[in-house]
TrEMBL record:
Belongs to the class-II aminoacyl-tRNA synthetase family. AsnA subfamily. Pathway: Amino-acid biosynthesis; L-asparagine biosynthesis; L-asparagine from L-aspartate (ammonia route): step 1/1. CDD domains: AsnA. It comes from the Bacteria. InterPro entries: aa-tRNA-synth_II (IPR006195), aa-tRNA-synth_II/BPL/LPL (IPR045864), AsnA (IPR004618). GO terms for cellular component: cytosol. It is an enzyme of class 6 (ligase). It holds the Pfam family AsnA. One of its GO terms (biological process) is L-asparagine biosynthetic process. This is Aspartate--ammonia ligase. HAMAP family: AsnA.
Amino acid sequence: MHLTIPEHYDPKLTVRQTQEAIRFIRETFQDELGKELNLTRLSAPMFVERSTGINDNLNGVEEPVAFTMHDLPGQTLEIVHSLAKWKRVALKKYGFGVHEGLYTNMNAIRKDETLDNLHSSYVDQWDWEQVITQDERNEQTLKATVQKVFKVIKHMEHEVWYKYPQAVYRLPDKIHFITTQELEDSYPQLSPAERENAICQKLGAVFLMKIGGPLKSGQRHDGRAPDYDDWQLNGDILFWYEPLQCALEVSSMGIRVDAVALKSQLEAAHANERLKFPYHQMIMKKELPYTIGGGIGQSRVCMLLLGKAHIGEVQASAWPQTMIDECLAHQIQIL
């Protein structure tokens, strides 16, 4: 457990006002995202069968919450970590065309998360996915889509300012693009997290590209599952967050693997055994559409726009009592 307490913190809104603002942000944001990216809202599962290989295994070390059901003998079900793979299958199943897509409310449990101001065991995000052509699997498509997501976030800043002018946290007007290798070259003496803090403090908002593969130093900037994002065509949207003096990630997104990228990345991750799963076989046989997609943290967006000091102020989860008590002593009201 790690907790940062901002000096002279003022939540600006009461708990009830905060709850009203959360509802407003969530409902408005998803509508605006759908319009900007041509997305249709779909219902999505909270758990999937382990045997499908469709769950997101994150960095490969996190263990999903799993259980069995009486009427599904021999099957183990897993609470999703995210819907990164499920969405691509859904686009095929429901017949989405090129430049059409879906979004859904994703709720997950990540029991191995280290709790702090930004991280909770309960994860809520807008998971979205859009069909693209094979020719659009390039950096230009990725950057153009990032700009659209950033546009929606900036639009929400204005909407929140209109309703809660005393509470809105002002965002930079531009997002910058930089690769993990460029970042390592600029700050070779810093750790990956320290590099993110340094570049975000300098530029305000950054899309950090090419996450997952090893850098020239031999180290990886961060772990990334080998079987959904193409490590050469992905990244994170990061903001410098003044209240906590750190980089705040609000979205992870990317162009998804094709057969070549999947094979290469599974080999690099020593995970070739995953090729036995139905999902991976569909990619190798080119049965799934080419797509771009990502997740946008609902609580993270609410936290960012309202200038909150702790993610527990905008979502109901479980926290150590010592953290709850210390937060309350500094006007940080955990839900």
